[in-house]
Structures are given as structure tokens and as C-alpha cells.
Amino acid sequence: MNDLFLIGSTGIPKLIFVSHACILPNLDQLKSIFNVTSNDCLFRSTPLTFDPSLVDIFVAIHCGACLCILSKDIRQNPILISSIFDKSLCTIAQMTPSFFRQINTHCNMLQLKTLILGGEKFPHISNITIQQMIRQNKRVVNIYGLTEMSCWASYYILNENDLERQDGIPLGKALNETSLILKPYIDNQSKTDYFQIILESQTRWTQIGHLSIEKIFIFETDDLIHYDQLNDQIFYVGRRTLTRKRLGVMINLEYIEQ
Questions:
Q1: C-alpha distances in angstroms, 61 versus 116, 143, 176?
Q2: Which of 226, 213, 193, 199 is nearest to 10 (CA)?
Q3: Among 124, 134, 169, 195, which residue has the least CB neighbours within 10 Å?
Q4: pTM of the entire structure?
């Protein structure tokens, strides 16, 4: 079992115990979605407090691929990142959209064959790098999930039809042994056009808190989505609360505004 300390945007800081049964279905499916082989080099940009780092590590080990690991100091220096990124000839990178925007103009992102963006709302499709990768038949993935049901819950592989989208990029379909349930969102006792995502699984469970023995198979997120009923697609809108996470630190935007 892996222990992950989470300074969570879904509530107060807490310790998450992630079972093998929770993360193994992710690893088995993600190595296929990421298109990983023994010839690849994975770019591990996230800190160990962010559970996608475990995906990078274990997928690389399982596939016999190389793994490029950045220290905290390097992660905060786009120029150093660029040098290491280019010299290591990374082919697969998983990162948050904000980190992607930070390094995009410094790194040769087109050397990648697969780019996975998750943890935040997907960038606007007008981004030149994303457009070029799609047109070059490279794999760009919008991925969604929570540490509380580690690690990822859904994915969507972009294609050329998405280049014309004006309504954002869908969250796609659920990963193995995971269900996405949509709960109508009520704000100030008034029904809205949004839904709240609930994650459910019969096998993937976590324990929250070091004294807890309860195995949680269902988790109600604070994430709001728009549901396109005509095309049966869901689109991430944002958080129900004003809490965000920046470099592993929980931040309340309302407090900053005051």
C-alpha cells in the first residue's frame, strides 16, 4: 500500500492510503493509453506528493522505459527544465496544464509522441503546440481524476475534429473499474445547469486518515461539469469551491481577493 500526503483541494489536509487494488487498474490501462514502450523516456515533472508521479514511476518500471526525474529547484526554473528536457530526448510527458504553459515556450514539446494533461482544466484548443501535435498524429490526452480514488478516473484522446471546438475538451470515458456519476448541482437552493461528479468503483478503494479503517468505494468531488446530452459528453467547468492547489499548497481565492 502506498501512503500519499495530500494537501487537498477537496477539503482539509489529509493522509490518503492508496491500495494496490486502487492504482493497479490505472497502471495496466494507462501504459496502453500513453503508448509506452521500452524505447521511451518519461518526463516526471510532478512532486511525489502528487500521485501522478507514481503513475510515471511504475509505468516506466513496468515497461522498461527510461524516467527523467526533476528536483523541486529545477521544476521552478523553465530554462533548466528546457535544457534537461531536450537533452534527455523525452518522448512521453504527463503534467498539469499550468506547468505545460510555464515550460511550453522553452521546451521542444514537439519531440514528444504523447502529451498527457490533467489535474486542471484542459488548455484552450487554440494552443499552437497542441494543434501541431494533433496534426502530426501525436497523442494528446485530457485526463481527469482525484487522489482520493487514485489516480485517474477518465481520459480523452484528442483528434483533428477537436481543433474546431469552441466549447472545451471533453473528459472522455471512464477508466477500468471506475464509474462517473452525475449529480445535479444545487446552488443556494436553486437548480443550475451544472452537475457534480461522483466517482464510484466496486474494487478501487482508498482510506482517508491514518486512524480510519473504512474502505471508501465512492467519492463525491467538488468538481462541476457541463453535460452535453446530445453528444453524451461531459466538460469540466471548475471547482464548486474557491479552493485551489498551487505547488502542493492549498489556496483560498476568496481570502486572496479580500
A1: 18, 21, 21
A2: 199
A3: 124
A4: 0.86
Is 57 in a helix, a strand, or coil? Answer: helix
Helices (H) and strands (E) in the chain, counts: 7, 16
- Rounded CA gap, 116 and 205, in Å? 24
One-letter amino acid identity for 85? F
Q: What angle do CA 81, 86, 90 make, to 5 degrees?
A: 95
Domains and CATH numbers, the chain: 2-257 (3.40.50.12780)
